[in-house]
Structures are given as structure tokens and as C-alpha cells.
Design a protein that fits this description.
Chain A is built from seven helices and three strands; from the N terminus they run αααβααββαα. Chain A has 132 residues and is mainly α. The longest helix of chain A has 26 residues. Chain A is globular. Chains A and B meet through helix 1, helix 2, helix 3 and helix 7 of A and helix 1, helix 2, helix 3 and helix 7 of B. The structure holds a DNA duplex (30 and 30 nucleotides).
DNA sequence: TCACAAGGTCTATAAAAGAGACCGACAGGC
DNA sequence: GCCTGTCGGTCTCTTTTATAGACCTTGTGA
């Protein structure tokens, strides 16, 4: 219940402050989370350290290119660490940083909502499509 | 604290169920939320009903095309209702449905995280850029 | 008569995502 | 020795999305 001010108040406050869209933290952060693969990758690392190939096996329909890129972005933002072992073939381990780990809780709230309301959303879509 | 199972367990459970990527509710739902404008629009409707132009004024750097499209998507998913008044010039009101409203709480959690950790993320970026 | 408002649509262009071939170094089978 | 496979990528090409911004319609008031 102590979620702090709700979105409406918060949004109003931003407006009042002459809010610069390009420095909005929410955009900055959420635009990454929406990057289609980000949430899944974070979820796959929630259980602990994983290697590149392991993540790929767990999310089979991502291309290596996008997997690399998304992991780099997460590393860049300090949510994920990357450790290279100079073996051959190379071995690379990824894991969540404390910062990345701290994202799990709010993310779980959203995932929870998604699972709970998915049926309702699907129903809404069917209804919408059936309209004239 | 009663967030239900955490992401790691949940993810593992999906895996075990022979998890079909294309029917994953999380992808289905979160891919929209990440659509860059979705969260902002929902936030702007958190305070109550707003007209098209009002939303546009509050999020000045969205194109009308994307605003229309994002609102349609939200309407399609049952998160937003659209009411047209056949005046002239036309007048259209948007508001959150109960389903849309129920998203505010988990979303606020994420926004909260984003605000709180934005400095850390920015610092991480600077650090990353400074690397060899 | 003219410009302007609201809530869009349409088009042309730029950015991003996806598929999938390729790479480099080694290990094992034959 | 030679061929094959593994790991963690990168590179190129094509398709998909997003963006900017011009245009449309129907009235109103100056």
C-alpha cells in the first residue's frame, strides 16, 4: 500500500516541473524493458548465472544478434555482468548485478498482472475484432 | 511480500510446460507496454478521462499517428475506452477501463524503480563508456 | 471569404529487428 | 592429417516499425 504517490500525481508533478521528455527517467528505463527480449532475459537470469548458449536455449526464438545486443545493453546499464573465460571454445557467463536483481520485484508485479489478466485481454481482442 | 512465486520459479515452470513462445502471456502483454508510448499514455489517463488533444499536449513529442495507433491498441486490448461525440469539430474522450486501471499499481512499482535507480543506471553507462 | 479547430489519415523516409551465413580456435573421431 | 562440431559471437541482407509532417473534413466565428 505504501507505493508512494500514484501515477496520476506523479505525472502531474512532472508536468509542473517543465518536464523535459528527453530526460524522463521513466522513458529512459522503460524503453529498454519494452525491448521485447529484455524482460525474458532478465527472467532467465533470475535463477542465477547462465552462459550465453544456455540463455539462447531457453529463449529459442531470439537471434544471436539480438541476444548479444540486449545483453550488452543490460551490461551497459549495470543490470548484468559479463564474465569471459579465455578457454577454447570461449565461455561467457552472465548474471544479474544487485541493481538488476532489485528490478525483479517490480517486474514480478507486472508479470503477475500479465498472467492474471491475459484471458481478459484476449477476450477484449476478440470482442474488438468482432465489431463493425 | 506475497508476490506469489518469483520470476525464477515462474520461468522454470514455463520451461517445464513445454512453453510455446507465441502464447506466452508475458511477451504478449509486455511487448505492448514497452511500445515506448504506452506507459506514458496510461500514466496520462491515470488521472481520469482525457481528450485526444489533451493527451497530445501532455506528451508533445509523440506524432498523431503513433498516438492514434497506441490508443487503438490499448482500446483493442480492453485497457482504454474511446467515446466519440459527434460534434463538430469531433470530440473524442479516452479513459482507462477497470482492467486498465488495475495495471496502474504494478506499473507504479516499475516507475518507482525507474525513478529510484535512474542515477545508478546513468552512472553505469558512464562507467561502461569509459572502458577500453 | 478566410483561417482555424479537432481528430484523425496518408506518404515518404529513417531506424530497428530478424534470418542466417560466416569466423577462429580448439577437441575428438577416424 | 583431415573433417566435424562447439561456443560466442559478428556481418550482411531483407523485412518490419517508427517518425515527421502534409493533408482531410466539417463546422464556427471574424
Amino acid at each position: 500500500m505504501t507505493d508512494g504517490p500514484d501515477l496520476a500525481e506523479r505525472f502531474a508533478a512532472w508536468q509542473d516541473l517543465g518536464f523535459d521528455p528527453h530526460h524522463c527517467p521513466v522513458r529512459d528505463v522503460l524503453s529498454h524493458l519494452g525491448d521485447k527480449w529484455t524482460t525474458l532475459i532478465i527472467a532467465s537470469l533470475a535463477g542465477g548465472t547462465r552462459r550465453f548458449g544456455a540463455i539462447h536455449r531457453v529463449i529459442p526464438d531470439i537471434s544471436k544478434r539480438m541476444l548479444t545486443q540486449t545483453l550488452r545493453d543490460l551490461e551497459r546499464d549495470g543490470l548484468v555482468t559479463r564474465r569471459v573465460f579465455p578457454t577454447s571454445p570461449p565461455s561467457v557467463e552472465y548474471s544479474l548485478t544487485p541493481l538488476g536483481g532489485s528490478l525483479l520485484r517490480p517486474l514480478a508485479g507486472l508479470v503477475d498482472w500479465a498472467e492474471r489478466n491475459h484471458p481478459a485481454i484476449r477476450a477484449a481482442r476478440t470482442r474488438f475484432q468482432a465489431e463493425p
